[in-house]
From TrEMBL:
This is VOC domain-containing protein. The lineage of its organism: Bacteria, Thermotogati, Deinococcota, Deinococci, Deinococcales. Residues 18-43 form the VOC domain.
């Protein structure tokens, strides 16, 4: 199988190409939602 040059590697292995989503645990969901909406433009 040929080596795909579009996939990046380092000494630890294959590097991710991007992030699809993340999960956060917060003590106050309303406060966190307001922060994300104001600070990051989230909906």
């Amino acid at each position: 199988m040929p080596h795909d040059k579009s996939i990046l590697h380092d000494e630890f292995g294959t590097l991710p190409r991007g992030i699809n989503h993340i999960g956060l645990t917060v003590p106050d969901l309303d406060q966190a939602s307001e922060f994300l909406a104001r600070g990051l433009g989230a909906k």
